Amino acid sequence: MLGEVISAVKKGNWKALFASFIYFDHSFSIWLLLGALGPFIAEELGLSGAQKGFMVAIPVIAAAILRINFGHMFQFINGKYIAVMGIFLSLVPHAYIVLRGFEVSYEDLLWMGVFLGVAGASFAIALPMAGSNYPKEVQGLVLGLAAAGNIGAVLDGILFPPIAKRIGWEHTFVLSSVLLLIALLFVLLWAKDNTKKTEGNKLYPVFAFFSTLAFMCFIALGFYKGWFGISGHGGKLLIPILGAGFAILLMPTSFKKVFLERDTWVLMLAYSVTFGGFVGMSSYIAMLLRDIYEVSKIEAGILMSLFAFTGAMIRPLGGHIADKVSGATALIYFLGGIALVNLLFSFFVPPLLLGILMFLALYIFYGLGNGAIFQLVPHRWPYQTGLMTGIIGAAGGIGGFYLPTVNGIVFETTGKYSLAFALFGGIALLCLVIVKLLHAKWMEWAHVRYDYEKEKLVGIDPKSGRVIMEIAS
Predict the structure, then answer these.
(1) Do 315 and 371 meet the contact criterion of CB atoms below 8 Å apart?
(2) pLDDT in the model for residue 336
(3) pTM over 0.70
(4) CA-CA distances (angstroms) from residue 115 to 53, 59, 60, 301?
(5) What distances in angstroms separate CA 452 from CA 137, 149, 201, one per listed residue?
(6) What is the band of 3 on the pLDDT scale with cuts at 50, 70, 90?
(7) Which residues contact 100 (CB under 8 A, 6 or more apart)?
(8) Are 69 and 209 in contact (CB under 8 A)?
């Protein structure tokens, strides 16, 4: 495996790949910062279960919606410029805390969470920018390596809780800005975007992005404070629908056509299960572990890092497996694993050690599934990879919003998490059935690859047009 990774990396611009990785890695760490600091914030502000879930869910849903805008911008604008803009916007909450004298309210954390979501939206830029520097036959592995920036969540769990215990969560929050400055340096020096851009008005996608950013801040605060006449949990659950609707409304009509395709919706659902599970659980698991097992805040952070590290590092393997057997085939097994572990958790609360092993298994399937899905995207939409990365990535973020939000609501209502695990396990099982039904149709495009020695597409029978698995082995 290591030899294949080295060989694949040598086929393109490794500096550009590394810059994309660092940009996504450090941005990912900032994105989930409230999850790592959540136990400290909750204790200091006296937050309820629903408030905790909503607080860590806001950066997740903001990133989901803003990925649509980033994908839109990427079709017109060099990804390097978008990355630099995103890093500076992600620094806004850090600057605000300093200006406020290190004293912020819960309401402040909600709109600040939207700006942290800009860091999470980096996914829609880092992946297609990295992939643009490599040939198609190694896209699954290369995109998996770039997306292994998910490992940024490890820093959250290991580094920040001990620092917060010593100097306070506010000062720790500001200190984390160093990661963004390091990412900025590498992006400026090494990042490169070779994607062919669409001709047209480059200012409109920027306008759409900032309009959506302002709209997300408005509804995050508005539904919490009851500005729209909808109070309670119902209003919070409407945020993904309104945010996504607003972002899509501002997209050009030609881009909206992808929503008429069945495959778009199926891959969106699948990614809401795999990446939504990964990021949603990562943002909430420190508090979940304290609720279930009463572990310390430091222990919860360490376990969060262990799980996040596992899910992030296994993602390239998911892409590699998909390169070999196709993402369409691999995804069936990975979704099955996610469904099984969730449903097991819904039936009983295991002892701590067994629970850790089960969470590790869950994160392994999350990571493998993430890699498999994005192996499929450049095959299915070779000329709209940036746009589809943003749209499908947004669906992952929406799943990541509902997981902590629903967990918080369920725990506050029932005192346990069984119902939430049953719900998410059932959704994974439903997605598995849909992918299985579409498998034969998907295999007509999912396993096609370009043979650079023969200078032709291989993996398909020229008579029937269907895939010949032996050729692409």
Answers:
(1) yes
(2) 96
(3) yes
(4) 18, 7, 10, 23
(5) 9, 29, 35
(6) low
(7) 108
(8) yes
For residue 386 the two structure tokens come to: 């940036």
CA distances from 14 to 144, 223, 303, 454 (A): 14, 45, 32, 25
Look at 223 and 77; give whichever has higher pLDDT: 77
Q: Which residue has the tokens 């669409």?
A: 198
The whole-number average pLDDT for the span 397-406 is 85
User: Radius of gyration over alpha carbons of the chain, in Å?
Assistant: 21
Q: Which residue has the tokens 């295991």?
A: 350
Are the C-beta atoms of 396 and 272 separated by less than 8 Å? Answer: yes
In 340-470, where do the E strands start and end?
449-451, 456-458
Q: To 10 degrees, the CA torsion angle through 90, 172, 158, 129?
A: 10
Contact yes or no for 372/326 (Cβ under 8 A):
no
In sequence order, what are the residues at sequence separation of 6 or more whose Cβ sits closer than 8 angstroms to the Cβ of residue 168? 40, 102
How far are the Cα atoms of 178, 377, 383 from residue 386, in angstroms, in the given order? Answer: 28, 10, 8
Which of these, 227, 299, 271, 284, lies nearest to 428 by C-alpha position? Answer: 271
Among 21, 147, 149, 174, smallest CA distance to 90 is for 174
CATH superfamily of this structure's domain 12-458: MFS general substrate transporter like domains (1.20.1250.20)
Residue 46 Rama label (left phi>0; alpha psi -120 to 50; beta)? left
Whether residue 381 contacts residue 263, with contact meaning beta carbons closer than 8 Å, is answered with no
The structure tokens 């279960």 sit at 49
For 80, the token pair is 């390097």
Residue type, 409: I
Residues whose CB is less than 8 angstroms from the CB of residue 306 and which lie 6 or more positions away in sequence, other chains included: 157, 356, 360
Q: Answer yes or no: are the C-beta atoms of 211 and 78 closer than 8 Å.
A: no
DSSP classification of residue 458: E
pLDDT one-digit tens code per residue, 177-216: 999 999 999 999 999 998 888 787 889 999 999 999 999 9
Cβ-in-10-Å burial (0-12, 13-18, 19+) of 55 comes to buried
